[in-house]
Write a structure and sequence with these properties.
By secondary structure, the protein is an alpha/beta fold. The chain has helices spanning about 20-30, 45-50, 60-65, 80, 100-110, 130-150, 180-190, 200-210, 220-230, 250-255, 305-325, 330-335, 335-340, 355-360, 365-370, and strands spanning about 1-5, 30-35, 55-60, 70, 90-95, 115, 170-175, 195-200, 215-220, 235, 265, 285-290, 295, 345, 350. Helix 6 crosses helix 7 and helix 11 crosses helix 12 (about 330-335). The model has no long low-confidence stretch (mean pLDDT about 95).
């Protein structure tokens, strides 16, 4: 198979779909890999590093999209990239289609086979290709939130850990999944007072066992969300409904009860965000102030630490990329129900039920689409 790795073009996105070690493995399996010039520069990998392991360097994304059987990326294809996709071509990347009707329509129109990292599952019912970036984003959310609280950035001027004689900040984490767990770990490590809210009592019990009395665990009833958000210096939004748009847990009215200069970090923004006042931002302009509250809603948070993120992502995605290359996409998908769950679009059909429901498309089960 001929595999193409274009340079990411989303604003401030420095990650790369395949690192050199992954390319080496693919070449060892008799596959050919095309990498766009400087695609790995953002993680400290030169064209020479890719050539040493057998990749061919090309200078245009157009050539990669025109020739490659499978495109391996990190972020969702931008409009110019969607126009270059074609029927029979495999796209393997993050998609986040539910809050993005334009991208969904473009992928449908292209006729390509689009497999989303974020809906691939494993035997434990988890999302193994989303997990490493959720770990990164969860940890970054506390760094970002700490900066948002600085006075020069519009914050209230609170130090997360406080100092002797001055109380630490209160951090409220919505969602006890991978993002929330990593956010809580970082916030507690900095000395903040931390509470985590989730609707799963089982998960709250697990978090209590993991962190003990240093973490307050709270059932995410509406009353509790309203009460704890009002008391927060920093709120981290880390809720996830796989493949679907994130629920709006924090309303504008709740924000009005917070102290001015408090901050929100919406890690769920890729799926539309879990705060009513959230709107996507970039690393160039990461924040805005609404209702007196600093909002950080960057849609590609892990892109801020691309070297760590790219290697962590490749550790998770490579086995699936290799299976798609070795077996061909149809056989690989039909033989592995967990990879099959990643199929979102195939030859104009929407094969992810959550996406179809959110965007009003007819849903076709993935297996049926592949066999039709």
């Amino acid at each position: 198979m001929l595999i193409g790795v274009p340079k990411e073009i989303k604003i401030r996105e420095y990650r790369v779909g395949l690192v050199p070690s992954s390319v080496r493995e693919l070449v060892a399996h008799d596959h050919k890999v095309m990498v766009q010039h400087n695609a790995g520069a953002g993680i400290g990998m030169s064209d020479a590093d890719y050539e040493k392991v057998g990749a061919t360097i090309v200078h245009s994304a157009e050539e990669i999209f025109a020739k490659a059987d499978m495109i391996v990326k990190v972020k969702e294809p931008q409009p110019v990239e969607c126009k270059m996709l074609r029927e029979g071509q495999v796209l393997f990347t993050y998609l986040h289609l539910a809050p993005d009707p334009k991208q969904t329509a473009a992928l449908k129109a292209s006729g390509c086979t689009a497999i989303a990292y974020e809906t691939v599952t494993d035997i434990y019912g988890q999302l193994p290709l989303l997990k490493p970036m959720s770990e990164v984003a969860g940890r970054l959310s506390i760094q970002a939130g700490a900066q948002c609280l600085e006075k020069k950035n519009g914050g209230s001027g609170v130090l997360l850990g406080g100092v002797p004689g001055v109380s630490p900040a209160t951090v409220i984490v919505l969602g006890g999944g991978v993002v929330g767990t990593n956010a809580a770990r970082m916030a507690m490590g900095l000395g903040a007072r931390v509470a985590i809210l989730d609707k799963s009592v089982k998960r709250l019990q697990e978090l209590d066992d993991l962190f003990g009395p240093n973490l307050v665990t709270v059932f995410a009833a509406m009353d509790n969300v309203e009460k704890f958000v009002a008391s927060a210096d920093l709120v981290i939004g880390g809720v996830l409904l796989p493949g679907a748009a994130a629920p709006k847990l924090v309303t504008r009215e709740m924000l009005r009860k917070m102290r001015p200069g408090s901050a929100l970090v919406d890690v769920s923004i890729d799926q539309g965000g879990c705060f009513e006042t959230s709107r996507p931002t970039t690393h160039d302009e990461p924040t805005y102030v609404e209702e007196g509250i600093v909002h950080y809603c960057v849609t590609n948070m892990p892109g801020a630490v691309p070297r760590t993120s790219a290697f962590a992502l490749n550790n998770a995605t490579f086995p699936f990329a290799l299976a798609l290359a070795d077996k061909g996409y149809k056989k690989a998908l039909l033989e592995n129900p967990h990879l099959l769950n990643g199929l979102n679009v195939h030859k104009g059909h929407i094969t992810c039920e959550a996406v179809a429901n959110d965007l009003g498309y007819r849903y076709m089960p993935a297996e049926e689409a592949l066999q039709s």
